[in-house]
Amino acid sequence: MFSTIVSQVINGLQSGSIYALVALGYSMVYGIILLLNFAHGDIIMVGAYVVWYSMSNLGLHPVVSMLLAIIACTLLGMLIEKLAYTPLRSAPRLSLLITAIGVSFLLENGFQLIFGAGAQTVPTLVSGPSLSLGSVTVSFPAMLTLVVSILSMAALTFLVQKTKLGKAMRAVSEDMGAAQLMGISLNRTISFTFAVGSALAGIGSVLYLCAYPQASPTMGSMLGLKAFVAAVLGGIGSIPGAMVGGFAIGLAEALVSAAGLSVWKDGVVFAILIVVLLVKPTGLLGKPIVEKV
Amino acid sequence: MSVSKRRAILSMPARYAINGVLMILLVVCLQALTASGALTGYYTKILILVGINIILAVSLNVATGYLGQLPLGHAGFMAVGGYTSGIFLKSVDVGQASGGQYVFYVIAAIVLSGIVAAVFGILIGIPALRLKGDYLAIITLGFGEIIRVVITNIDSVLGFDFTYGASGLKRIPKVTNVLNVALCIILTCLVIHMVMKSRHGRAILSIRENEIAAESCGVNTTYYKVMAFTISAFFAGVAGCLYAGNLGSLQPGGFGFMKSIEILVMVVLGGMGSMLGSILSAGVLTVLPEALRGFSEYRMVVYSAVLILMMIFKPTGLLGDYDFSLSRILERIGIGRKPQKKEAAK
C-alpha cells in the first residue's frame, strides 16, 4: 500500500514537472501581453513530431533530435508571435484570444493532415539504470525529468531575475508604455518571451516523450489545457506560481489515479480550475488585478 | 437628416403581419417540397444539419456577439439538451404514440431539453460570469469538458445505464424533420430578436460596449450576463435535441472542444452581433464541405486559417453587426404611412 502511494507520488512529480514547464510558458506570455496562448500546448505536439521524424525518418541520434525539437519549438513560438499576434497588438482581447484558438487548431489539423490522425510511436529516447529505494523503484526517465525540469526552472529564474533581458521582461509586464519610454524594445522583449516559453515547452515535450513515447496531433491540447490550469492555480503571470501549480496538478492527478478513479482525472483537474477561479481568481501566488476605469 | 424624417414608417402590426406571412410561406414551401418528394433524403439531411447549425450559431451569437464574452463550452449545453431529449424520448417510447400524443411528446422533448440546458446555463453562468475575458473562456471550457467527462462516466456511479457511457446512447427515436427544424429556427430567431430589441437587449448590448459605464448607469450587469448566457444555453439545448432526433444516436466524444470551436467559427465568420451573418455562415459552412467532398478533410485546417485571417484583417466578421430588416427596405422604397407635416416638423 505504502509503496503504491509512493510510486504514484513519483509519477505525479514526473508529470507535474512537465506541467510546470509548460505552465511557465503560459504564465510568461500572459504576464507580458495578457494573452492566453492556446497554441502553447500544440507547440509541444510539434516538438514531439520533430523528435519522431528525425529519429524514425532521418535516423538521427536521440540527443540530436531532442535538441532539434527544442530549437524547432523555439522558432515556432517566435514565428507564431510574429505572424499572428503582432498584427493584433492593439486589437481587443477577444480578437487575440480567437486568433490563438485559430493557431492552435491550425497546428493540430495541419499535422493531422500531413501525418494522419493516428499516433506515431517514438523509439526509446533514453535508457539508464533505475533507482530502487527499498520496495519503490524510480525509473530513469522519471529521475531525468525531475532533474532536467528543476535545472530549467533554476535557469529561468536566473534569466528573469539577474539578466538585462529578464529585467526588460519584468518591466514590460509591469507597464508596457512606461517600459517603452525607458528605451526597451517591445518587439524584441515579447519575441524573447515567446522564445523562452516555447523552448521550455520543447523541453517539456522531450520529457513527455521519455515517459509516453507517442506523438499524435491532439496530444498537445489536453496537456496544454492542464498546464494552463496549473498556471491559473499558481497565479497566472507568476513564475514560482506556475512551478507550484504544475506540481500540484500532477500530484492531484496521480492521487486520483491511485484512488482508482483514473477516468475522472480530467474532470478533477477542471474542477480544481473552477474552484480556484471562484475562491481565489488570482491563484496561489498571483498579484490581484486592479480594474481601472 | 430631413430626408429620414419624411421617410415612410411602417406600423408595428404591419411589420409583424408581413414577417408572419413570409414565415408561414416558408414553412408551407418546405412542407410542399417534402410532400411532393422534391427533397430527397440526402437534401433533407443537409437541410436539417444546416438548420441545427443555424440554431447553434444564432444562440452562441447571443453570448459572443451581443454580450461580448467568449464562452467555449457551447457544445456542452448542446450535449445536455441532446442527452435530455434522447433519454426522454426513449423512456416515453415515442414510436408507439398516436398522432396528437406524438406531437405533444416531440414538443415536450424540445422544450424540456431547452429548459434543462438553460438550468445548466444558470448554474454555470452565475459562477463563471463573475470572471471576464480569458478567465470566462477557460472556465466555460472547463465546464464543457466536465459535462463530457460526467456523461462518459456517470453510469458507473449511478449503477444503472443512463447515458450508456462512451459507447453512446443509441436507438433514439428519429423525430427530427425539416418542418420542426424550420419552426425551431423561426422561434429561436424570433425570441432572440425580440429580446434584443427590448430594454433587456439594450442592457445586454451596453455591457458589451462598456461594462463599467453600463454598471454606473444602473444596469444590473450580473443579472443581464446570466440572462444572455441562459438564453444562449436554452437554444443550444434545443439544437441538441434536434441533433439527437436527427442522428438517432449520441456519443459524448462528439461534444468536445472541437464542436464548440466549430460553432464559434460560424459566429465569428458571419459577424459577431449579426443574426443574418450567423445564419448565412452556418449555412455556407455546413453546405460547403458537403458540396466539395474532397474538401472535407481540409475543412478544419481551412476553418482555423479563416479564423486567424478574419481576426487580423476584419475582426468584426464579414457582416459586422449589420442585420437584415425587411421593414427598413420597404420603408426606404416608400411603402408605408407617410408621416403628417406636423409630425415631420418636430
Descriptive labels:
A: mainly alpha, 4 strands, globular, B: 346 residues, mainly alpha, ABC transporter involved in vitamin B12 uptake, BtuC, 0% strand
Tell me what you see in this structure.
The complex is a heterodimer of chains A (293) and B (346). Chain A is mainly alpha-helical. Chain A has a domain at 30-231. In chain A, 73% of the residues lie in helices and 3% in strands. Chain A contains eleven helices and four strands. In chain A, the strands form two sheets. Chain A has a two-stranded antiparallel ribbon. Chain A has a two-stranded antiparallel ribbon with strand order 2-3. In chain A, helix 2 runs antiparallel to helix 3. Chain A is globular and about 60 Å long. With 346 residues, chain B is mostly helical. In chain B, 73% of the residues lie in helices and 0% in strands. Chain B has 15 helices and no strands. Chain B is globular. Chain B starts with a helix and ends with a helix. In chain B, 45% of the residues are buried. The chains are: A mainly alpha (293), B mainly alpha (346).
How many helical stretches of chain A? 11
Anisotropy-based shape of chain A: globular
At CATH's second level, what is the architecture of chain B? Answer: Orthogonal Bundle
Give the biggest beta sheet of chain A: 2 strands, antiparallel
The average pLDDT of chain B is 84
N→C terminal distance of chain B: 12 Å
Q: Percent helix among the residues of chain A?
A: over 70%
Structural class of chain A: mainly alpha
The fold-level CATH name of chain B is ABC transporter involved in vitamin B12 uptake, BtuC
